[in-house]
Amino acid sequence: MNTTNNLTPETRAEDIRRAYDLYLRRGHERSELSDVSLDSMGYLLPKRLEAKLVNAMNTLSVLRPLCTEVTTAGDRALPIVNGHGKAAWVPEGHPIPQVRDAFDRVNLDSHKLAAIIRVTNELLKDSAVDIEAYLADTFADRLAVGEEEAFIAGDGADKPLGLIHQAKVGCETQTAGATSIEDVLNLIFSIPEKHRRNGTLLMNDTTLLQLYKQCAALDTNLWMGKDDTFFGYRIVRCASMPDAASGSMPILFGDFKQVYINNNGDRSIKRLDQLFIINDHVGFLMAERVGIKLTVPDAVKGLQVA
């Protein structure tokens, strides 16, 4: 008698967990995985492995904690308000003026990012090793780097269009090929106050070091007693941001919560038994579909180097 339908949710979840463990360690594909099959793309990540991967990626990623993440079932158009009416003083007994907000639609697209890693058979057979944690940490390291590079500087060709290409120019540097403290101040005040109050400065270590040196040369401290703020605004360092050079955009500033990261669908994993068989290794392929979009053009702007 088939008792599959009589299983409790807890028992069903435990059966799937064991089936995943057998699949990851030995390549056994049991019937319990049939409900989460993605055909050629492998299997959807189980919730536990997905949670470990997300935690690891959030630790490594600069932009994901800054931005707003949404999960969609496909590319979609997001309705946003791009203009607001104003409140009005109304005399007693008079009608309240009707004001229509202006709405727009922002397309949240996505692109496939994939990585392959190899694992030794000795590691897979060692029951003392948390294979899910190992895969999560290893894939997170590769996916996070790939995401960040594209989220910042992607050209939009089979990858997301990066923020330095989406953001408006807030101001241009006064000196060719270099940034200054005054340039950063001009950038900050190019952002409307409602977005400036939640503003964050994004730059790489090289650009930040140049600003530190300028402050040291002027014998002044603009960090307000904290090394991670500048003019009172938080500094976040990102290795994918470009250096200061003519034509580059080495600093972004604004409210990054108006930047949406689109997680399109679920991540998948596939075991590749034959790819590294000569080395007695097993390959694993993980893929995801992600995108990034600045939804409010005035919320984040960049410093353009002359």
Q: Concise description?
A:
The protein has helices at residues 9-26, 47-60, 63-66, 121-125, 131-153, 163-166, 181-188, 193-196, 205-217, and strands at residues 43-44, 68-72, 76-83, 102-108, 111-120, 168-172, 200-203, 229-230, 233-237, 251-254, 259-264, 268-272, 281-294, 300-304. The protein has 306 residues and is an alpha+beta fold.
Q: How would the blueprint of this fold be written?
A:
Elements: H1 9-26, E1 43-44, H2 47-60, H3 63-66, E2 68-72, E3 76-83, E4 102-108, E5 111-120, H4 121-125, H5 131-153, H6 163-166, E6 168-172, H7 181-188, H8 193-196, E7 200-203, H9 205-217, E8 229-230, E9 233-237, E10 251-254, E11 259-264, E12 268-272, E13 281-294, E14 300-304
Parallel strand pairs: 2-11, 6-14, 7-9
Antiparallel strand pairs: 1-12, 3-4, 5-13, 7-10, 8-9, 10-14, 11-13, 12-13
Helix pairs in contact: 2-5
CATH class of the largest domain: Alpha Beta
CATH topology of the largest domain: Major capsid protein gp5 fold
Shape: globular
- The helicity comes to 25-40%
Beta-strand portion reads 25-35%
CATH architecture of the largest domain: 2-Layer Sandwich
Number of strands: 14
Radius of gyration: 25 Å
Structural class: alpha+beta
Low-confidence parts: none
Main β-sheet, in a few words? 6 strands, mixed
How many separate structural domains? 2
Order of helices and strands: HEHHEEEEHHHEHHEHEEEEEEE
- Output the number of helix runs: 9
Mean pLDDT figure: 86
| Separation, N- and C-terminal Cα atoms | 76 Å
Main features:
about 300 residues, alpha+beta, Major capsid protein gp5 fold, hypothetical protein PF0899 fold, 2 domains, six-stranded mixed beta sheet, globular
